[in-house]
Amino acid sequence: MSSTSLLSSTNPVTYPTAKKNALQLISAFNIGSVTNSTHYPLLTKKAIVNGMKGSINNRGRVLSQGKSSLCGPAAFFFTLLKIRPDIYVELVIELYTNGKATFKDLKLESSQSAKKLKPVTLREVDWLLLSSIKPKYDHPDEQFDGITLPGKLKKWFTDAGFTDVVDNTNLMSNKGLETLLKAQNDYSSGYTICLFVDADIFYPFKHKAGSSFFPNHWVVMNSDVKMRKYNEKTKTHGPSSIINQSTVSAIKKKISDIETAAFLDSDNDDGEASTETFDRILLDAFTWGMQNVSVTSKISTTQEARLSYFLNGFYGYIKIKR
Predict the structure, then answer these.
(1) Are 126 and 61 in contact (CB under 8 A)?
(2) Could you give the count of Cα atoms lying within 13 Å of 211 in the half-sphere of its Cβ?
(3) Count of H helices and E strands in the chain?
(4) Helical pair 85-98 and 71-83, crossing angle rounded to 10 deg
(5) 231 and 136: one domain?
(6) Does some domain include residue 157?
(7) What is the pLDDT, as a whole number, of residue 213?
(8) Are residues 320 and 269 in the same domain?
(9) Could you tell me if 108 and 188 lie in one domain?
(10) Interatomic CA distance for residues 39 and 41, integer angstroms
(11) Do residues 313 and 198 touch, judged by C-beta distance below 8 A?
(12) Using CA atoms, how far apart are residues 287 and 186, in angstroms rounded to an integer?
């Protein structure tokens, strides 16, 4: 690696400059002497070049995990791509040319089996990059080995030089409104927010399952968290507004009232009650190669998602600043 490599540079760069640099790097690589890779023999240089261009120019999609379980790597590299597309490009070129790459304390190298594979369910450039951060991951069909726990995702960001990386997740039980409010406040303060969720929250309506029992997916927030509070008297929803402490307090009181009423109901044999309310949540996130996937209602394809449904599959978040 040359001494002028971006991967060894610590100088801050604005996004427009980083994007311009990225496109220049792609152009130079395209006309350069490197032909098809000896390290990834089934991945063509043409596909890698076109894949990088597609990621940089956001031609309807960005990097995607396809049908693999590489949502953690996708969240990591999407964040890097969004902030420093030039470093994203140099990492891809370095991997394709030399079979491995290093960025600060982050070491990337795909397994020998992964290097010899040409995937059919995701782009070649995405397989090259996403598999490189999982050195024991051999094939997109290996769902278990692709899983990324919060501690590992946090370490990747820390090793790559991101600052103020904070893990606010829970593996055993879902998080509530106060954590969601913290996520929104951190997002407003300029942090990148990686949400830890049950993927069912973002699935198309026809693919939705039942209740959430554990988190299994990472997505990156790409919008403010907005609410539409439900008025019990008028049976209507109010206008959407960004979640704040007043909204959280009002909804928590509503849930408490529902629980109390159900407990005092003499017809309720077990004393338990659903805390589901009719309040709505509006939130977009990056997932599955699309930048703006909305929380989707379990009730209907056209209905905004119930807040209670989202919270049932929300297990916290990791925040990152660079």
Answers:
(1) no
(2) 5
(3) 10, 14
(4) 120
(5) no
(6) no
(7) 79
(8) yes
(9) no
(10) 6
(11) yes
(12) 20
DSSP state of 32: S
Question: Could you give the CA distance from residue 14 to residue 288 in angstroms, rounded to a whole number?
Answer: 27
Whether 160 maps to a domain, the answer reads no
The number of C-alpha atoms within 13 Å of 150 and in the hemisphere containing its C-beta is 20
131/193 same-domain check: no
Structure tokens at 268: 């309720």
Q: For 58, what's the count of Cα atoms within 13 Å in the CB-facing half-sphere?
A: 9
- Measuring CA to CA, which residue among 61, 181, 171 is closest to residue 125? 61
Residue 308: per-residue pLDDT = 87
Res 225: pLDDT: 96
CA distance 318 to 165: 7
* Structure tokens given for 269: 């044999």
Q: Give the count of beta carbons closer than 10 Å to the beta carbon of residue 245.
A: 11
Q: Can you give the residue range of the structural domain that contains 283?
A: 165-322
Report angle CA 278, 282, 288 to the nearest 5 degrees.
125
pLDDT of res. 21: 96
Measured distance CA(6)–CA(24) in Å, rounded: 13
Residues 180, 143 share a domain? no
- The Cα-based distances of 21 to 7, 89, 108 in angstroms read 13, 9, 22
Residue 285's H or E segment, with its range, is strand 284-287
Same domain, 208 and 183: yes
Q: Which residues of the chain have a pLDDT value below 50?
A: 1-4, 266, 268-274
Query: Quick one: pLDDT at residue 174?
Result: 84
User: Quick check: is 155 in a domain?
Assistant: no
Instruction: Give which of 96, 313, 42, 91 is closest to 201, Cα–Cα.
Output: 313
Do 274 and 243 belong to one domain?
yes
> What pTM does this model have?
0.89
Number of domains in the chain: 2
* pLDDT value for 168: 96
Q: What integer pLDDT is reported at residue 282 of this predicted model?
A: 94
> Does 265 lie in the same domain as 179?
yes
Is 23 in contact with 93 (CB distance < 8 Å)?
no
